[in-house]
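Journal club prep — side note

Before the paper discussion, L.F. wants everyone to see what a predicted structure for a comparable chain looks like in token form. Sequence:
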Amino acid sequence: MPLGQPTVRLFLLAVAAALPPLILAAILLLEPPSWPWLTPASGLVIFTLLTTAWWAIVSIVWARGLGDDVSAMVELAQRGRAEGGIGPGPAGAVDRLAVMLNERNRQIAELAERLRASPIQGGVQEVAWATVQTAVSVTHDATWTLAVLRSPSDLALPRGIYGTDVSVTPAPLSEVARWAATMKTDDEAIPSVRHGEGPWGAFVAVEVAAGEDLRASLLAPWEGRAAPSKAERELLSLLGQNAAIAMEHALLVEQLRSQTNELNRMASVQSDFLRGVTHDLQTPLTRVSALAAEVGEQPQLSETARADLETISHQADRLRRMVAQLLVASRLEVGALQPVQDVFRVDPIVQRTWDALRAERPFRLEVGGVPHLTVADPDRVEQVLWALLDNAVKYSPAGTPISANISGDASSGGELRSVIRIRDEGSGMDEEAQGRAFEQFYRSSTARRLAPDGSGVGLYAARGLVQAMGGTITIASRLGSGTTVELTLPAEALEEQPSAGLPEHAGIERGGGEP
């Protein structure tokens, strides 16, 4: 250990300060001089004075040495460099370290900023060009390129060599790019960053890979430069990893966009088909109903023939209503449904709709609450009621009662609403079926078992119609306990209790709509 180190100096100081007093004390105690004036008291005084003087001398000497050390440290701190610095500019180790730290902080900050601004929504080719621009900006090296060797979609990300100019088509893959992709790892700690020399000189390759289908490399010529340091490799590895993630996300966005466009196209085709089919079916069904009614007026018909004609008319009307549901569903898809707005009594419509079903069931219609008139489209309300009452009949055991309750209730905001509740005593619905009941074409396993010929459009169309008229529709049900469907519509208060002679349609039109 060198004698100039502080620890050795402190040790020598302690020895020099303690050893002479100890020797003097031993002499005075073991072999005291035979001087007549030397008594124990005077000996103690002499020992104390000599020891104090010696410590003072040692302290002065040590303080001078300490001052030299402090002066040297202050001078070193002021210069900011160690002895032996070479070269122009910031030659000292401290200066060089500060410059390196500042540059590394700049690189990391710029890399983070460019990663946040990665143009994922613009397409995967935009991300490829942005990756090269990031490498050039972070390293201050304009020779970087990105070689895409394998791509999951040649349309979204063609294979080739990408530079920084987005207007330039990617160049074909070169032999250098293929060789760099097979370059052996020269640092096992960071295998994604490779440095090597080949027939074309020295290169650095940074792996950009995601899954099995995306393989690319960031390439830069490295001739005449030292191999990348560990810090440089870590930075380049981080760039490659984040570039791979950005390109993978951009590919997913491209796939989702393509799938969405295809689904929209298929939905448009489906809507066009439904509109065409429903329009084509409406006319013959209307003619069947009209001819059945006309033939039924002939007086010479037998009762059996008349009953058959009524069955034909009823089934044709049922088909016409189902076709109307499909037509409503197609119009809801394109937002082309505009109900009219009239003021009317809804209870006669409920009764008429029930009678049209011709269901051999007990039916109870109750009217209560605030006397009111419903504000909606009466034809659309009848479509909704037919779907709800038809479901109540299809999904409940034969002979069980069906009930409808109509009341005028004030909403939480104080507005009057017409509330219509349709109740059956059927098998009920579980939570999943309730949550998906209004989805288009959805039918639960219980519904398919009880009514195999259903379409799964009725409740979907009903909700769309009710919402278009400014109302709401909800379902309350439990397995084995029946189902209650509640719909609310805007209403106006009625001054007097409606009498039996009041027409069901007041004829007060509030707005236009489709006939």
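L.F.'s comment for the group: The longest helix spans residues 230-296. Keep this in mind when we get to the figures.
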